[in-house]
């Protein structure tokens, strides 16, 4: 057996930003199987983001940390201090009434919130998994529009409680 050799593929690197300052405090409730639904409650969510790719030949970084922080901060700020509502949940109905948003569960009027305090998310349930995916899809779009098209993977972790998190991972086709 010969020595372990690497392939001709350019070396890949991974950068991640700490979740300590990427926090959002939001309210939500999850619908379970059948007719079970959580009551409204809140979490101090924490977000971690990682991307992988080759390093730029001149700067020798995959992506400037500050770029990754700024994008993630913006995505997190958009849902901070909000009631997270999954608009694709078939068990929920939403009715706008002036400045208020009424939420029905299986057709039963259940909650009324001030509209400005709600984040309407195009997801089927506000689980940590779906929140991570939602942030991941937005992160991909932000990176693409920023011209960062050399990346090979992105990851978003959403921690709902200490030691309790979900990670969404998406492979990317680099330019
Ligand atoms: Zn919860």
Spell out the blueprint of helices and strands:
Layout: E1 13-17, E2 23-28, E3 41-53, H1 65-77, E4 83-86, E5 92-97, E6 100-105, E7 108-114, E8 118-121, H2 128-145, E9 151-161, E10 164-171
Helix pairs in contact: 1-2
Describe this structure in words.
- With 175 residues, the protein is of the alpha+beta class.
- It has two helices and ten strands, in the order βββαβββββαββ.
- It has helices spanning 65-77, 128-145; strands at residues 13-17, 23-28, 41-53, 83-86, 92-97, 100-105, 108-114, 118-121, 151-161, 164-171.
- The strands form three sheets. Strands 1, 2, 3, 9 and 10 form a five-stranded antiparallel sheet that branches.
- A hairpin with a 2-residue loop joins β6 (100-105) and β7 (108-114).
- The chain binds zinc ion (ZN).
- Zinc ion binds next to β3.
- The site of zinc ion has 4 residues, from β3.
Q: Helical amount among residues, as a percent range?
A: 10-25%
Q: Shape from CA axes?
A: elongated
| SSE pattern | EEEHEEEEEHEE
**What is the count of β-strands?**
10
Main attributes of the structure:
binds zinc ion; 175 residues; elongated; 2 helices; 3-stranded antiparallel beta sheet; 5-stranded antiparallel beta sheet
Short structural summary:
With 175 residues, the protein is α+β, with helices and mostly antiparallel strands. 18% of the residues lie in helices and 40% in strands.
């Amino acid at each position: 057996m010969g020595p372990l050799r690497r392939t001709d593929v350019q070396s890949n690197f991974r950068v991640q930003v700490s979740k300590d300052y990427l926090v959002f405090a939001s309210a939500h409730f999850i619908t379970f199987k059948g007719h079970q639904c959580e009551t409204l409650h809140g979490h101090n969510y924490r977000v971690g983001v990682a991307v992988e790719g080759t390093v730029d030949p001149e700067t020798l970084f995959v992506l400037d940390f500050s770029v990754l922080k700024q994008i993630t901060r913006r995505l997190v700020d958009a849902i901070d201090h909000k009631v997270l509502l999954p608009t694709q949940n078939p068990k929920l109905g939403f009715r706008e009434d002036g400045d208020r948003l009424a939420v029905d569960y299986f057709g039963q009027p259940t909650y009324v919130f001030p509209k400005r305090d709600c984040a309407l998310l195009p997801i089927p349930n506000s689980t940590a998994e779906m929140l991570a995916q939602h942030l991941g899809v937005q992160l991909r779009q932000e990176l693409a529009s920023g011209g960062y098209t050399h990346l090979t993977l992105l990851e978003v972790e959403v921690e709902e409680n200490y030691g309790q998190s979900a990670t969404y991972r998406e492979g990317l086709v680099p330019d």
